[in-house]
Amino acid sequence: MKYGSVRNIKKELLSDNWYSLNRVTFEYQREDGTWETQIREAYDRGNGAVILLYNQKKGSVVLTRQFRMPTYLNGNQDGMMIEACAGILEKGNAEETIKMEVEEETGYKIEGVEKIFESYMSPGSVTEILYFFIGAYDSHMKVSAGGGSAEETENIEVLEMSFSEALNMVQNGEIKDAKTIMLLQWAQLNSLFDQ
After folding, report:
1. What is the pTM of this model?
2. How far, in Å, CA of 139 to CA of 166, rounded?
3. Burial of 16 (0-12, 13-18, 19+ CB in 10 A)
4. Could you read off the pLDDT of 68-110 as tens digits, one per residue?
5. Which CATH number applies to 48-189?
6. 171-185: pLDDT as tens digits
7. What is the residue extent of each domain of the chain?
8. Which residues pair with 51 in a beta bridge?
């Protein structure tokens, strides 16, 4: 028996202050074939991209540290998060967006990036798909100090550390950002660095 179909979708805009929050009412077909009405809220902030910058020769990665208000509101004492470089897609192009974000946030101008996978990060409430990349960096690619966009009130600290140190920071709870943990674990599982 077919189930999991959706019909009669109705959206009500609740907020469009920064991105859009909608209340969605719909009918969902259950496994037994009956239809039930469900109501959910969905936050649409667009899709994004994230990258792990790595240097195999040095055995290092580049991450960022910045203040994140939602984490502060939920118990992160200083609100600071260590993360891989990321951003919301511009004009729908993940590869070009991530190259631009890398230069803006870290000061490295990279050419080649490799998409490794994509993921819904919070599928119960957020529509975003995040595109995951890796990209090699070297000192000659450094064109500025980075730090983010002043227009977007970003105050980003650029961190270069050994891959093993980054993994230890996941282990001891210093890195709590899901996308960053996923990239570091991917790098470990795929032997990006000889260990």
Report:
1. 0.90
2. 19
3. exposed
4. 999 999 999 999 999 999 999 987 799 999 999 999 999 999 9
5. 3.90.79.10
6. 999 999 999 999 999
7. 6-44, 48-189
8. 85, 133
